Structure formats: structure tokens, C-alpha cells
Amino acid sequence: MRHKEISFVIHCLICCLFYCGTEKVIAQNYPDAGSWNTFNVEYGINNKLTGLFTEECRIKENFSRLNLFYTNMGIEYKITKYFKMALVYRFIDKFQDDNSFSFRHRLMLDLTLKNKFSKFGLSYRQRLQAEERDVYSSDAGKVNEWYSRNKFAVKYDLDKPYTPYASVEFRYQLHNPRKIESDQTWHRVRYVFGVDYKLSDRNTCGVYYLIQKEWSVLDPQDQYIVGLEYTLSF
Question: How many domains does the chain have?
């Protein structure tokens, strides 16, 4: 039995190595480094509803070129102690290679489960998003891109102003008229490791490192991101 188990593991490793090698032949990966810089506002309307606002600037190409700006506006509803939902609209200014901007509109529905076990806080977020781009300048502008994003996160309460956390998010492409070849596939993962520091009851800042990997797309790209965040809560 032991010999069969070892043989099975070896065969699995060989298959994985063959698959990874094949992926590299099919699509060349181009790594990049950048930064994401985020300002958040959370306004408690009552004990159930919270207004959400976010402004973010992203830099790419080894911290040398603007990638995009986006603005989020939304509402979050706390259903129970462990379950909440949010509806958020995002307006995106995507900087193009020809130095023009691509204007995009995204709608996101988030469902989040969370619980605390001793000092560990665990959460799962399911996001369904639809996006239009270049509505008046593209024939496919009004055709939505649909994605499902699944995020698992853990944080550790140190009973101090700073809180370390980690998360992993997988993205599934439901339909994208511009990238049909990746429909109905998982094609992106993000790993995040960070620390939030509570300056006061209303002010929190944070820093994180994000690694993004892509596959099953025509031009996969690995991204290595340094992120800075500031959150103002009312």
C-alpha cells in the first residue's frame, strides 16, 4: 500500500509539472510592480446601515505610469452579527496606452459572512460584479462583463492598535464579450498580507503587499503591489 501511495504522488507531481510547462509555452507571463493608494469613508447611518465611499489611485509599470482612478459609492446593510450585504457602484478612469482614458461603470453586490474564534477573525465574501466600458465609443460598450469573486480572509487580534491580516481571492469569469476564451473559467488569484493600525476611534491606516497571478487568459500577468490605505469612520 505504501508503494502505491508513493507512486500515485509521483505521477501527480509529474502531471503538474507537465501542465505548468505547457502553460508557459502557451502564454508568456509578464510580471509588473505597482502601488494602490486608497482613501475610504464609512458613515454609520444607524446600527444597520453604513454609507461607503472610496477613492483609489493605482500606479503600474514598476511604479512609473498611471493605471487608473476609481470612485466607489455604496451602502452596506448588517443583517445579523455574522452576515452583511453591500451594493456598490464604481466609476473607473482607466489610463490607456495612447494616453487617453477609458470610462467604465461597475456594479458590485457583496455578501459577507464573518465570525470570531478566540483571537482569530474569519470572513468569506462573495462578490458578483457587472461592468460596462466605453459605452458611447464601442459597439460592445453596453454589453456587461460578469465576474464572481470569492475572498477568504483571516485577521489576528493582538489587543494592540495594529492588526495583521491575510486573504486570498479567486475570480471566476462568467462572461466577458472581449475575452470569450476565458469564459466559464477560474483565471485569477490574489494573495494579500497586511497590517492595519488604529490611530483613533475614527481613523485607521494600513499597509499591505498583494500578489496577483493569472492563467487561462491570452496575456497573463503577475502583479506585485504595495498598498497604502486610510479609513475615516463616522
Answer: 1
